[in-house]
Design a protein that fits this description.
The protein is mostly beta strands. It has one helix spanning about 1-15, and strands at about 25-30, 60, 65-75, 80-90, 100-105, 125-130, 135, 135, 145, 165-170, 185-190, 195-200, 205-214. The protein starts with a helix and ends with a strand.
Length: about 210
């Protein structure tokens, strides 16, 4: 039993500190309200009640080196729905990009209509903005190399509990090479209700995970 307890403890530590353990950047969160406290959530598995999450915004300051999104996946967990964005570090020191994750109401970006805002099952929306990042590596000759070849709308496992749609707003990406810090990628996560969440960023490979608590 001791090895299993040690593993759970390590998991709780990792999720509690979030991006601070990943190294680099500043991670900020809005003050939690009493209704968002960990003790207000169902204990669906070992350590779930100890994960620090709320409905407040999460922010990590953008770096100065462009990274390239290569994958986006969803997976269920006993404590949360997990949505992960994976990056090629490019010329950066193996760090994930900065991010802003918060609840927003549509329209999410002026002039862009999304499937998510008309999706009947989506009752709350997490806006996910990552910067500086791109899906076109302009270090290659010609028009560059496309790094992300996945779907605009992610496939959801049947065991996913609160996430009903995850959509990439692909028309907001700026690929101007003269100012790579203007590059950003935006996704919207539609939920069946407003839930506490947290963000975990890490390296090897650089990645950002949104954890929507159950």
């Amino acid at each position: 039993m001791r090895p299993r307890l040690a593993f759970v403890g390590a998991l709780v530590c990792l999720l509690a500190v979030g991006a601070a353990c990943a190294g680099g950047g500043d991670d900020e969160a809005a003050p939690s309200k009493a209704k968002d406290a960990a003790t207000d959530r169902r204990d669906t598995g070992p350590g779930c009640r100890h994960i620090v999450a709320s409905e407040g915004r999460r922010f990590r300051r953008p770096g100065t080196t462009l990274v390239y999104m290569v994958d986006a996946v969803t997976e269920p967990h006993v404590c949360y729905d997990k949505i992960t964005f994976v990056f090629d570090p490019g010329d950066s020191p193996d760090l994930p990009p900065g991010y802003l994750v918060e609840y927003r109401k549509p329209p999410f970006v002026e002039g862009i209509n999304t499937t998510t805002e008309g999706f009947d099952e989506a009752k709350a929306y997490l806006y996910v903005e990552m910067q500086p990042t791109s899906t076109v590596d302009l270090r290659f000759a010609g028009s560059g190399r496309r790094t992300y070849r996945g779907n605009l709308r992610l496939t959801l496992d049947k065991a996913i509990q609160h996430t009903v749609i995850v959509e990439w707003l692909d028309k907001v990406e700026d690929t101007t090479p003269e100012d790579p810090t203007d590059d950003k990628i935006i996704w919207v996560i539609g939920l069946d209700e407003k839930r506490p969440f947290t963000v975990d960023s890490a390296n090897q490979p650089p990645r950002i995970s949104i954890l929507v608590m159950r």
